Amino acid sequence: MPNAEKIAKVAALKERIQDAEALLLTEYRGLSVHDATELRRALSEQARFAIVKNTLMVRAAADAGIAELEPLLGGPTAVAFVQGDVVATAKKVTDAAKRFPALVIKGGYLDGKVLSAAEAQSLATLESREAMLSKVAGMMKAELTRAASMFEAIQGRFLGVLEAYKEKLPGDVTEEAAEAEPTAETAEATTDAEPAAEPTTDEEPAVEPQGEPDGEPEGEPDGEPEGEKE
């Protein structure tokens, strides 16, 4: 039955596994304490490099839901618990393996998948996060520059069309004004000619007396009223 100390160590390893973005498993057989310390310092910014006991690591991995790591836990094992750039960490571990032949990459774990030794080593051939971000930023800048150039071209074309329209507009207005002048002159001539009909209106009263009767109105007596004869 496991004692309290082992249970605490398994719990601590489980927490490291769950907090890590990736795991890189290495065999450190023959690696000196000095070399291991130097490697630990080199990885300190991106990962925590620690020597683990296989039996405890197997239990911790099983508790964390990645029991598939057990085949990689054979022989002296040191694990890089990556908490930063996985690619940068893989590059440093690979470079360390070249300098310290005793250090061998056995595999890894990334994005829910157990990696073989070859797959773990291939991470070192990828571009780092900073390099990819820089490339993406460069691509975005290029696209923005291209979009700005296209906008300036469209704006230039629009201004050209507008200028051409302005040059054409005064000529059209002049022609319309020239066409409107005869109409205005005709209207003025018609207005000037209207007073000539007024004399006809003034002569009309001279005709009215012809309609009046020559004698007195009918119905009025020729003499005095009958009441005055007596």
Q: Would you give an account of this structure?
A:
By secondary structure, this protein is an alpha+beta fold. It is built from seven helices and five strands; from the N terminus they run H-E-H-E-H-E-H-E-E-H-H-H. Strand 4 and strand 5 form a beta hairpin. Helix 1 crosses helix 3.
List the main descriptive attributes of the protein structure presented here.
alpha+beta, 230 residues, 7 helices, elongated, 5 strands, Alpha-Beta Plaits, 55% helix, disordered C terminus, five-stranded antiparallel sheet, single chain
Give a short summary of the structure:
This protein has helices at residues 4-19, 33-42, 54-63, 86-99, 117-122, 129-193, 198-203; strands at residues 22-27, 47-52, 77-82, 104-110, 113-115. It is an alpha+beta fold and 230 residues long. The chain has 2 domains: 4-126, Ribosomal protein L10, N-terminal RNA-binding domain (Alpha-Beta Plaits, 2-Layer Sandwich), CATH 3.30.70; 127-186.
The CATH first-level class of the largest domain comes to Alpha Beta
CATH architecture of the largest domain: 2-Layer Sandwich
| Fourth-tier CATH superfamily name of the largest domain | Ribosomal protein L10, N-terminal RNA-binding domain
Element-by-element helix/strand order: HEHEHEHEEHHH
Give the overall silhouette.
elongated
Task: Determine the CATH topology of the largest domain.
Answer: Alpha-Beta Plaits
The termini sit apart by 170 Å
